[in-house]
Amino acid sequence: MGIFSIAAAFLVAVLWWATAGALDRQTVAAIRADATALSDRHRDAGVAGLIESIEDRLAQDVEAETIYLLLAPDGAKLAGNLDRFPPSLGGDGAWFRTRIAHDGATAEARVHRRDLPGGLRLLVGRDESERVQLRLLLTEGVVWSLGAIIVFGVLGAALIRKALRARMGPAMRTAQDIAGGDLSRRVPLSPRDDEFDRLGASMNEMLERISALMAGVRSAGDAIAHDLRTPIARARGKLEESLATARTEEGLRAAIEGGIADLDNISRIFQALLRIAEAEAGARRAAFAPFDLPEVLRDAAEFYEAMAEDAGQTLVTDLPERLTLVGDRDLLLQAVANLLDNAMKFTPAGGAITLSARAGPAWAEVAVADSGPGMAAADRDKAMERFFRADSSRNTPGSGLGLSLVRAVAQLHRGEVALEDAMPGADPPGLKVALRIPLS
């Protein structure tokens, strides 16, 4: 309302300056031109010519707007339609507004004084009665306009505020309900698809993400309690058994080493959970930097190639010469290592594992494919949940966190993970895990 009122007041001021101000400037210009012309007439024709010019101007003034007074050095009136010289008129060149009597009437006038050679005093002016009335009408119009502007400004501000409250009300109520603990609430959207609907859609997307993270936290807590109970109980049982049954130092040492191995496994699980939490929270995004992706993949392949040979497997690489990517080099290396671990775990002796990379128009893809039994389509949707273990892999070592870390790394890089058959139609089909990351 304030901005609207200021803009409207500025507009009214410009209109005032262009109307009433223009009238004042026109009057001043006419008086100054008339006084200059009479001064020139006095210089060329003397006092008699000046008196003649004044009388001609008065005779031609049908509307009786012109005001003249010529006084002799002794104060005697020589020509003009003023009855007397106004008091406190000022010196030569003075301008003033006053009420004067001319032609038998009293009127508002603007007068200019000129002192001429020989002690003559000349007054030139214009009757401003009509202009004063016009100025009063303009002033009254301006006052009424400003009043109407304020009224409409207040009314418009109230209507806009009411409209904003009506549009923001659902989002505010949803936020209040969520603050009260009801995370199932969502902002209702209208068919307008305006800025408020886009804001509501963003809030709903954020709430869906929060709900998914909360569900992940709850399921992770349940899974931790379930999956860690077994190794902890096993470590405790081994240590208790060693206290009760160990008769030699070697037996006691073996039991302690077994307990340490179980505790190391628990520590690795917690470290994996911390890395996943860091990646999901985006805490590692500050470490993003450009790096050569094929170089990282060659380092991983060099490390796992010897392990594959020991297991009777073949590790094949299909990498470009150079592919620059911006991201966290260490986390991507860890994600690829997890994929290679899983591939070696499920690939039988004599099988092959392929590590490949390629660049698309806007993304880079890192894929690990194996010739193992593959994964059922029903299990692929849950495969990247924490601690998920398919029925076919219950007897294999692992904690069920490998693919969870891969998904967290992909999300950190605004990418995605896809699981598909490595050899569609074959038996077994194998499994291909593709990690796609945007290049920009």
Largest sheet: 5 strands, antiparallel
CATH topology name of the largest domain, in short, is Heat Shock Protein 90
Q: What would you give as the CATH superfamily of the largest domain?
A: Histidine kinase-like ATPase, C-terminal domain
Please give the count of helices: 8
- What is the CATH architecture annotation of the largest domain? 2-Layer Sandwich
Number of domains: 3
Q: Name the average pLDDT.
A: 81
CATH uppermost class of the largest domain: Alpha Beta
What low-confidence regions span 5 or more consecutive residues with pLDDT below 50?
none
Radius of gyration: 48 Å
| Widest sheet: strand ordering | 2-1-5-4-3
Number of DSSP strand runs: 12
Structural class: alpha+beta
- Distance between the first and last residues' Cα: 45 Å
Helicity, as a percent range: 55-70%
Strand share of the residues? 15-25%
Describe, in plain words, how this protein is organized in 3D:
With 440 residues, the protein is an alpha+beta fold. The chain has three domains: 2-136, PAS domain (Beta-Lactamase, 2-Layer Sandwich), CATH 3.30.450.20; 196-281, Helix Hairpins (Orthogonal Bundle); 286-438, Heat Shock Protein 90. 56% of the residues lie in helices and 18% in strands. It contains eight helices and twelve strands. It has helices at 2-60, 129-179, 195-245, 249-281, 293-310, 329-346, 377-380, 402-412, and strands at 66-71, 77-80, 95-102, 105-116, 120-127, 289-292, 314-318, 324-327, 352-359, 363-370, 416-420, 432-438. A five-stranded antiparallel beta sheet has the order 2-1-5-4-3. It has a five-stranded mixed beta sheet with strand order 7-9-10-12-11. Strands 6-8 form a two-stranded antiparallel ribbon. Helix 1 packs antiparallel against helix 2 and helix 3 (195-245) runs antiparallel to helix 4. It is rod-shaped.
